Amino acid sequence: MKTIVIGAGAIGLSSAYYLRKAGHEVTVIDAGQPGAKASGHNAGWVVPSMSTPVPAPGMMPQALRWMLRKDSPLYVSPSISPKYLGFMLQMLRNCTTARFEAGLEVLSHLSRETLQLFDDMAADGVSFEAHNDPLTMLYTSASNLDKHAAELETMEGHIEDFKWRLLEGSDLAREVPGTVPQLAGGLQTYGDRSLDPASLTQGLTAACRRDGVEFRLGRRARLRSATHGSVTVEVGQEALSADKVVVAAGAWTNEILAGIGSSIALASGKGYGYDLPLQPDGPQHPMYLAEAKVAITPLNSKVRIAGTMGFGKGTNERISRVRAEGLLKSLPAYFTQWPSLPTPAEPWTGLRPMTPDGLPIIGPLPKHHDVLIATGHAMLGVSLAPPTGRLIAELAVGEASSRHLSSLAADRFKL
After folding, report:
1. What does pTM read for this prediction?
2. Could you give all domains of the chain from N- to C-terminal order, each with its CATH number?
3. Per the CB 3.0–4.6 Å rule, which of 10, 119, 258, 351 could disulfide with 39?
4. What is the 3-state secondary structure (H, E, C) of the chain?
């Protein structure tokens, strides 16, 4: 069976990896290099403990309150586009406790084997930098701490070998030296990991090439309608045909689908980050600053700081330095001091593909069953890449058995 994968991010590469293992003849097409977009610009976390939907009770009202703050961690850009407004209205409808808990169950189920799948990839020769240090989440608000602790209790019931503990007082000061005394406390999880996302996409690319996957990079792909309801993939002047087409183009997925008159409920969520130099008095383990929504990831060659969630129309990759600098300005609320930077840091940005209910879209297009969609993972693209890739391979051969397929279906939203 011949399959074309459009998109060489973590999701597309994982899909190509598992499709090739299943015996498919696979071609990966991308306008850029592997991992050049959001797959290379993220916190690098594999986090079953944070596999929760973005739409949560109180999320949208908070984003609207912060709309006028140029450095806020969560914001909604105003637009009069009917499609954009419709998307935001659907997201608002999903900001209920019942829908959040339902989404939490789906993401917990999807996450439960991701650590083992990463281990299996590594055993198969997929090379990437990974760390098993516990993740510490810091809170300035006691109510936010209690809320997340309740979510972790739910996660513990769904994910094998996942553990967590509460950090207060001397325990917190010992685990995270230099925190401000006003903190409400912290939560520490065991069973989460961190990795260098660029090394992951490089490792997957190398493994796919080793196994015989063809890559066509630097060329933009478009879907075009063909005879009898089938589709072709247009690359330059060439029209390619395949038994299955996987569209894993992240925030750009609808641009790919436009050629066949299709679209899915998808918007971009802009994140920012910095790669800072390693310093002896810098952070040694991954941390999450809960209210600031900032992730801190120490890696072998740098410390990555990532965060913010900005909803906007289209795929705007322009960098707002004020917005990015909000990440650095949030640090004093959690730490008594932070290592000084020898030179001003340069920010980067990445667009996360967002759906109205915070769950990914994994499955066939309703009118084109040979086109499989794999996108909408929000901030969990790296974390959920292996289980998504495996599920895509199962769907391609008609053997998928997940009980949550309807919750991941492409047609679950009204456009």
Report:
1. 0.93
2. 2-408 (3.50.50.60)
3. 10
4. CEEEEECCCHHHHHHHHHHHHCCCEEEEEECCCCCCCCCCCCCCEECHHHCCCCCCCCHHHHHHHCCCCCCCCEEECCCCCHHHHHHHHHHHHCCCHHHHHHHHHHHHHHHCCHHHHHHHHHHCCCCCCEECCCEEEEECCHHHHHHHHHHHHHHHHHCCCCEEEEECHHHHHHHCCCECCCCCEEEEEECCEEECHHHHHHHHHHHHHHCCCEEEECCCEEEEECHHHCEEEEECCEEECCCEEEECCHHHHHHHHHHHCCCCCCEEEEEEEEEECCCCCCCCCCEEECCCCEEEEECCCCEEEEEEEEEECCCCCCCCHHHHHHHHHCHHHCECCCCCCCCCCCEEEEEEEECCCCCCEEEEECCEEEEEEEECCHHHCCCCHHHHHHHHHHHHCCCCCCCCHHHHCCCCCCC
